[in-house]
Amino acid sequence: MNGSDKNIFERFSNWATKFTGSSSAFIAATLIVVIWAASGPVFKYSETWQLVINTGTTIITFLMVFLIQKAQNKDSKAIQIKLNELIAANEKASNRIVDIEDLTEKELDQLHCYYEKLADFAEEDEDIHASHSIDAAQRNQDHKDELFRKKHEEWLKQQEQQEKKESK
To answer: What is the value of pTM for the model shown?
Structure first.
């Protein structure tokens, strides 16, 4: 996206974010405080003198909260897109993890517990290159489920045969 495609607020917020995070901004803020403190005797440390710095810092703090949040949202979105690309590009990674930031806190906690278990499995595994992805776990679960159903069907057939023998 080139500069002409961005709106005025986007350009201003990008500039303000870069500036406020710079050494120049810190030096400017320090100078303002030093000048304000030095002007105390001139204004006889009046309530107005105190009100100037209090009001100024309150307004700047209020505006900075929104500026910081906007920058954080943009950075977070960019990081999520980069992570999603890495997940999508890795054939062993589970695509189910893409866009999990929309899950509830409880669902994220469940996933966290799951990955803690995978980490425990990985620690026990002698081969550090073994994959313990969600997809591998799902295949394992499907395999277990298939075996269980097969055994259950065999058991049901045995029960039927048993009942036929007993009814004769």
So the answer is: 0.58
